[in-house]
Amino acid sequence: MRDAWTDEGPVDSRRAILEAVRAAAPPAAPLPEIGRFARPTADPVGEFAKALEAVAGVPVRVEDERALRAAIDGLASRLGAKRVVCEVSAAAPGDVRLADLPDAHDLEGVDLAVLPGTLGVLENGAIWVPTDGLRHRAVFVVAQHLALVLPAAALVSDMHEAYEHIRFEGRGFGTFIAGPSKTADIEQALVIGAHGARSCTVFLVGAAATPRE
Amino acid sequence: MSAAPPTEVEQAGRAGHAERAAAFVANGPRAHWHDEALWWVRAKRDRAAGTIPEWEALRDLAARIRAHVRSNLADYLEQFERNAIARGAQVHWARDAAEHDAIVHRILSSHGVRLVAKSKSMLTEECGLNPYLEARGVEVVDTDLGERIVQLARQPPSHIVFPAIHFKKEEIGDLFHEKIGTPRGLSDPTALTEAARQHLRRKFMTADAGITGVNFAIAETGGVVVCTNEGNADLGASLPRLHVACMGIEKIVPRLEDLAVFLRLLARSATGQPITVFTSHFHGPIDGGELHVVIVDNGRSRLLADPSHRSALSCIRCGACMNTCPVYRRSGGHSYSAVTPGPIGILLTAARSPSANPSLPLASSLCGSCDDVCPVKIDLHSQILELRQRLARAGVAPLGKRLAMQLASRVLRSRALYEAAGRMLRAMLRSAPRGLVENRWNAWSRQRALPPAPAESFRDAYRRRLDGRGARRVDGRGPRG
Amino acid sequence: MKVALFIPCYVDQLWPQAGLATVELLERLGVEVEYPEEQTCCGQPMANAGFAREAEPLARRFLDVFEGFDAIVCPSGSCTSMVRNHYAPLVGVDPRYPSIAHHTYELCEFLVDVLHVERLAGRFPLRVGLHQSCHGLRELRLGSGSERMVPRSGKVEPLLASLAGLELVPLARPDECCGFGGTFAVAEEAVSCMMGRDRVADHARAGAEVVTATDVSCLMHLSGLARRDGSPLRFMHVAEIFAEATA
């Protein structure tokens, strides 16, 4: 088999592909206007909680930071979590400081990771978790259990609204997380806890946003 | 790629979809079980789509966004590359499967990679990456549970979203017992999944590199988006220092706001979930690491140039067409003998090698259900029909069939011949001994009774009716008076 | 209004009762029909198998036979769709085609869209399973289809439902293909027959006494399987039900 890498440099393939694509010349088609689909909702927190439960997540409302700290401790205790990463500034730091770990592989064995989310999406129970502030972005998927902390006011209706608030700066990694990891690859039987977190608890902190006009 | 049609012998060699499908159907209970399993996924898709009042509007938007991207693809690819590089990714271009494999191998070997954790990528299947790497001493572990199952079983995936949907849990239990040491007879899905979790976690922790596919590549930001339910792509991409992301040129989406449309359609169409558990946006490597994006053509630019089939490039790999296809459900993915099965597989396979798999365009009743579930509104069944026409024009049809069609066309061009043929047919059906008829019409009447042949055709009866009334018949062409 | 009858070749030869019922029904509704006897076949069997070249002369012939009518009515969704949706590449630039295509109707859509018939005054006190033939459903939109998220509507079901005593049975899969598919029935015999048997079983489980459809091709395939398997189900084209009910 011809090794294209050594016979010709990458520049030729790039040019060849772009030329072939330009030559294909499909007819012009405009980029459509997307528009808005969000409907006003009387109870965004309630709706989000339902959507989260539908994806096997566990919603927990907490009034304020003090209640949050207690709730996190309670969760860790219920899970029997010995090694906890907590990257939420409002809560006490956990036993494991991400910043002190030289390598993401050292995360193996972390029982619970508590991470901040910045947005929750009503239509699907997903939470936007940007990780630029975290030394190791893998923490959300290596930890056995996951807890996400979200201001109850930071809820949006749908993905269209969500992306209005999302920008990628710096190292630019972010992920939507909708509940614990799962699979249905064995006879379509839903199993919670595939390779990532076995559970996903979402702490909704504070009051809901005042309804928009 | 040669377009020479296969010889009559090759065609008659009968290693086609119909034969493999017949073998699948022959195991009645199993075929029904498979059919019900896939229909169940279709039903979940219906329920999920039904919760979105703007569902049809989203499909329309998605189709139009894809059409727009196709008409500006080179510019978008360049924009994507610029932005990706600015974020710290390295971008490579591969004209074909061989080049893709060589590039990926070179990246891996230059980093001394011995073990790769790979998440689901139909592109890498298409390019035959696994065997290529394995032949060069790189162990590739497919980390999606379904993919790992078929990898251990040494089989190709039978569905692009549920690779092991053709396996019963007892069979997976036996496989795991043999390959990863689970207790004999263990078949509970939760327990088997836990065993796979432990087994694969060790692989994730020792992998030197992660290879992922790309669900969407965002031109505006230079990022690649990977959607999974299991988290395996993230474990593969965020633990080792080296992340290789492989994408076809058609994966481009212009902006984040366009991405929203596709993400709202993808999981609902694929599994009936509102979104996958993880939707990860990669804009660069982890600290001290490298992200390599490999952009692949491998026949896509040729498809782009084909006015009848370019819309097949809209495909977002949801698998909804497979779930709804009554033929796929009753024949199984392996019967297509192609990287991608089902309706979209028929299109993509024929685009790659028009005459190599001539039975595929016939593996369809043209019911059109696939068109209506496709989130990006690919006119699948019309394209399948178009492929049949291409094959017929290229002379790729058994001689007997061609002659029969030509004969039928001649007879039907003449009212007298048509009426005579009809009378003969009915007379034969009424009077011929059963054995003779059923032998001649074997493929129909092996399992089906023939319709009772009437003594009078419609036109005979209608003429009688008119004569009885003294009304005038319309002998010539066009209407009376 | 000059209305021509377009009777599919296989109805003409093998299931004439559907054509006769169509005539009776239309005349009962006050429509004077003509039957141009030069008609043979619309070319669909050839075209669907990919043999467009063999279908072309038949398509052009269709235009010869049916030009000059205000409406062409056909008791078949697939043949109607052939003319409306698949003739363009076969007839090329023929000035007669757009008008003929526009005025070719499947029977139920003719009743609903042209005659504005919403209800049929008649009686058919049986449990009926409606098989929604694919071309009629998805190419002519005689029904809304289970795949699309649109308000439910249809041109076949309401007419059946309007008959006194007729009970439409609920199917597990309301619009799955029967498996006929033209040459598919023979080329992929195994899958075709499994598909058909599954449909028959669905209707039987739902308690149907009669299975009906807009396409005789589906009915021949399903009834062929049902008879061979000893099922007591009856198979009638919608025209036969309408004609019998309004007699």
Number of strands of chain B: 10
β-sheet strand percentage of chain C: 5-15%
Secondary-structure content class of chain C: alpha/beta
How are strands sequenced across the largest beta sheet of chain C?
A: 2-1-3-4
Structural class of chain B: alpha/beta
Strand order of the largest sheet of chain B: 1-10-7-4-2-3
Nearest-angstrom radius of gyration of chain B?
27 Å
Separate helix tally of chain C: 14
Write down the overall mean pLDDT of chain B.
93
Calculate the terminal CA-CA distance of chain B, rounded to whole Å: 59 Å
The best one-word shape of chain B is elongated
Largest sheet of chain C: 4 strands, parallel
Output the radius of gyration of chain C.
Answer: 17 Å
Q: What are the secondary-structure elements of chain C, in order, as H or E?
A: EHHEHHEHHHEHEHHEHHEHEH
Largest sheet of chain B: 6 strands, parallel
Structural summary, described in words:
- The complex is a heterotrimer of chains A (213), B (481) and C (247).
- By secondary structure, chain A is of the alpha/beta class.
- Chain A contains 6 helices and 11 strands.
- In chain A, the strands form 3 sheets. Chain A has a 5-stranded parallel sheet, sandwiched between helices. A 4-stranded mixed sheet of chain A has the order 7-4-5-8.
- In chain A, strand 4 and strand 5 (126-130) form a beta hairpin.
- Chain B is α/β, with parallel strands linked by helices and 481 residues long.
- The radius of gyration of chain B is 27 Å and the shape is elongated.
- Chain C is globular and about 50 Å long.
- Strand 8 (174-177) of chain A pairs antiparallel with strand 9 of chain B, so a sheet runs across the interface.
Short description:
Chain B has helices at residues 8-12, 17-26, 28-50, 55-71, 73-86, 97-110, 122-126, 129-135, 145-152, 169-180, 189-206, 232-238, 256-270, 300-304, 320-324, 326-331, 342-352, 369-373, 380-393, 399-412, 415-431, 434-440, 442-445, 458-469, and strands at 89-94, 115-118, 139-142, 209-212, 216-218, 223-228, 242-248, 252-253, 278-282, 290-296. Chain B is α/β, with parallel strands linked by helices and 481 residues long. Chain B is elongated and about 95 Å long.
